[in-house]
Amino acid sequence: MKVKTLLCAGLLIAASPALYIPSSFAYEIPMDVSQKHKPATVRVLLAENKESLLLEAKGKYQLCNPLNNFVISNGTFSKKDRVIHEKAGIKWGERIPGTFHIRVVPVDSDTTILVNGIQYRGCVEIYDRDGRFTVINEVDAESYLRSTLAPEFTKEVDQEVLNALAVVARTNLYNMVSKKPANQLYHVKAQDVDYKGHGATLQNVALEDAISSTRHAILTFQNAPFAATWTENSAGKTADYASIFRKNVASPSGVEIPLAESDRQKLGWSFTVTRDQLAHIADLHKISKISLFSEKNSGKVYAVKLSDGTNSQDIDFFALQKALGEQKLKSNDFTLEVKGEAVTFKGYGQGHGTGLCLYSAGLMAKQGQDAAKILATFFPGTKLEKLRVISNQNKASKSGQYLK
User: Fold this and answer.
1) What is the pLDDT of residues 387-399, one digit of tens each?
2) Strands (DSSP E) found in 117-244
3) pLDDT by residue (tens digit) across 59-87?
4) pTM for the full model?
5) HSE (CB half, 13 Å, CA atoms) of 395?
6) CA–CA distance, 64 with 184 (Å, rounded to integer)
């Protein structure tokens, strides 16, 4: 992995030996009315088909029409009122004749917006469709990462591992957003990613520091962000994303981690089910044959074929894990032993075994390796770069962009 110099605050600063750039924690203004200078953002669907909403702007704001970016009014002081549908136009305290869609834009980084009592960074858009409201929060990527990662990492994790994790999560986010059509109304649904707004960002100081100090840093593979992942414990070897997730995408190859390989036997697990239980999962009468489909280099399983002699069913690892339970089928690093009616799964580690292995990264950090070296180990052939914007985001600035 070639580590490029990072562009930060207008200065070229070497990335090695440390990945992160010390900086004071601060929020960017996630939107501007022209949409020409905004940082990387994510459009999150907060709610849809709502009959009324309580909307509050805490601080200075601008009220705009999201279809043409026309400024309707400037709010010098905070405002709180219900959003109501009327035939002549939407009403937020005052009527806005002829306008059925509004965007509340923060004027500075101190302004936050509340929807039904939940506080958000960024801007909030409300679309009135025949009296039913759709609510979108367009939030800068850094604030989004704080909100979505904080609930996942409540236990203590080494700071260098968190720094690496922040880069991986940001890389995956940039990849996801860049793949979406520029005129799409939203990128993700809040409930699908456990997005809970600004309040969730205050739960983990170490994670806050990791996101702030790696601000805008991502990995690129073949000159683009990619589907970057992390896993709890790969038991000494990882697989490439494309093989395990069965996606026709470019992704770095899996790796072996000798430091963690020595702990492999300590990380073993096993459990037993019956043929009938597997037949029920596959919707087959009985199970006469079981075959595993594995990634060649790592041996990680991506699917299982269950057959009754006449019919067969292919079940991918994630569906099988969901059916058997994550506490039983802990990882895709397993083999099968069949004796009579009993089928015993014997495996190692925890998780899907692709991308950044948190367990192995922790061992590396204890030996003094920093985030840049950790990332270079798990994502060979990638480059570490600073990118404030996502390439396709400013292409959707024309009138009617979100209603096609």
Assistant:
1) 998 876 654 433 3
2) 118-120, 123-129, 132-140, 188-189, 217-220, 230-231
3) 999 999 988 888 999 998 999 999 999 99
4) 0.87
5) 12
6) 19
